[in-house]
Amino acid sequence: MPELRKDPVLGRWIIISKERSKRPTDFPVEKPRSGGGFCPLCPGNESFTPPEVWSAKSDENGAEGDGSGWMVRVVPNKFPALIIEGDLAKEGVGLYDKMNGIGAHEVIVESPDHEESFSDLPARKMQFVLRAYRERILDLEKDLRFQYVLVFKNHGKAAGASLEHSHSQLIALPILPRMIVSELDGAKSYYSYKERCLFCDIIRQEMQQDVRVVCQNERFIVITPFAPRTPFEMWVLPKHHQSSYCLQSDEELYDLACIFGEALQRLTACIPNVPYNFVLHTEPLRSGGTEYFHWHFEIVPKLTSIAGFEWGSGFYINPLPPEEAATFLRKSLEK
Amino acid sequence: MPELRKDPVLGRWIIISKERSKRPTDFPVEKPRSGGGFCPLCPGNESFTPPEVWSAKSDENGAEGDGSGWMVRVVPNKFPALIIEGDLAKEGVGLYDKMNGIGAHEVIVESPDHEESFSDLPARKMQFVLRAYRERILDLEKDLRFQYVLVFKNHGKAAGASLEHSHSQLIALPILPRMIVSELDGAKSYYSYKERCLFCDIIRQEMQQDVRVVCQNERFIVITPFAPRTPFEMWVLPKHHQSSYCLQSDEELYDLACIFGEALQRLTACIPNVPYNFVLHTEPLRSGGTEYFHWHFEIVPKLTSIAGFEWGSGFYINPLPPEEAATFLRKSLEK
């Protein structure tokens, strides 16, 4: 019997079609082809990107500015979806509404090594990437035109990556994205009913039931959510209530790097070369610490196709129950 | 300067990134490969599908039941996402909600001819497909377990089609899909403010401005919407207010077939072999004719990829302004 499940945050329903249940090896993954040739994100080619807006230098090497010696480097996107200069010029056109496409679009180069993927980064290196996210959000927060900064990653061609060199992106937006509005609404309505954070309650229940927990450390937990959109979808959450990603100390970011890396290694062990996206959902800029929202990463492997039904309904069909996905992920690093 | 535009129905914002603006030939389309071999949807192979639930027979040929002689044939999906037998058994699991995956999942075989695509169907044949949608919704409406029937089509492998033989599908659902709820909410809130149907107002404005109209006849209009998710997205709407698709007469369905076919031929002339999805949005079952909702088809070509940003935000980036798409589509059938 297939099952309908409701995402407790968004109210989005999904179909778990157990009859079509699959093993990790049933998901075909295209082998990545090495592009070869010139890479604008590699050390030595810094002049091919716009000037950097943030970087982390290695300790041994004191190189400055756009020179080499960086471990992580943030630069404006050369082909931005939104542009930084100008004002919003909000305008109505008959019954329609529009505004200028003002925003920031930046690229976080995660490693100087062209071959090193995000999931392979040792925690002390991944920590710098996670720090870059925090520092860039804090900086863009000062620009009062922006309401939200969305940090995301496309890994693998099928997941939308156009450059091979490992990188993530952020887009600062002048309006709250619909998905964030829905999450905030869902979380707020639960809070006003229960006086408790919905995500804290989810974590508590997941730790008790222990059927969808993938891995955890003292500060963080990784689960397959109750109503996942895709096989092997995972959420990474801080165990203790924290509304904004930016409230984290460097020490906490190190612990986050450990568990985030482990989650992705488990995923990759299940499905080699898996294309995936991840996004950071944190509270809107300048919210000042809400009681009801709880930041988290959502990792969404690209293994199923979005077709007419999903487009038309906002409903997803997922052939793999999250309990089975969690079992595969828990066992995946056993020798 | 890129532009942010708000969909007036859903409140969903999209980015029109004009700087990345493209011509139809800039969208790479994979050539379809003919699968060859056995086709369960071809005449003569009727016994390889579950027994038909509806069919239209050709006039000349009086064959009955599952024999050949059909023009359009509706059968239960052999691998359904939801199943028809059982009750919903709604249940809470701690803070989560679930129910049995009860529903209907049917396949509408659009032609006996394996090679004939939906957009190639002459109006008198396409009318039978459109009639099948109406008849199946009317029949499934009698089942009080269902709240909605979503009709959709996946054309081309990239758009999720798994069989080559031209077909569409429907899924009857025990709950209202989130996308429909959002459309109803948006339309209802506009109506309560203005006392007018939002879609009727859109049609009036589009006909006046005449920059996003693709084609029209006496009863129907095809537009590229103001805030399209993808290049060449089109909406097909009845010009006069009508909340339910099922209220249409056979004569109206013939006119719809003419304009629907023309819209798809224009699309295919712009981008040969274009993969696309379409969905029918009509009022929920047993609504009895709302003043505020207006049924329509949404045609969504699969030309851009859904990556981390779209997943995380519900925001779409579209490189082609709908005014330019409309111009290409209007000129596409000129010799």
From TrEMBL, chains A, B:
GO MF annotation terms: UDP-glucose:hexose-1-phosphate uridylyltransferase activity; zinc ion binding
Listed EC numbers: 2.7.7.12
Cofactor dependence: Zn(2+)
Alphabetized UniProt keyword annotations: Carbohydrate metabolism, Metal-binding, Nucleotidyltransferase, Transferase, Zinc
Domain Galactose-1-phosphate uridyl transferase N-terminal: 3-177
Top EC class of this enzyme: transferase
GO BP term (any one): galactose metabolic process
Ranges for domain Galactose-1-phosphate uridyl transferase C-terminal: 186-299
UniProt keyword annotation of Zinc present: yes
Entry similarity comment: Belongs to the galactose-1-phosphate uridylyltransferase type 1 family.
Protein's recorded name: Galactose-1-phosphate uridylyltransferase
Taxonomic lineage: Bacteria, Pseudomonadati, Thermodesulfobacteriota, Desulfobulbia, Desulfobulbales
GN (gene name): galT
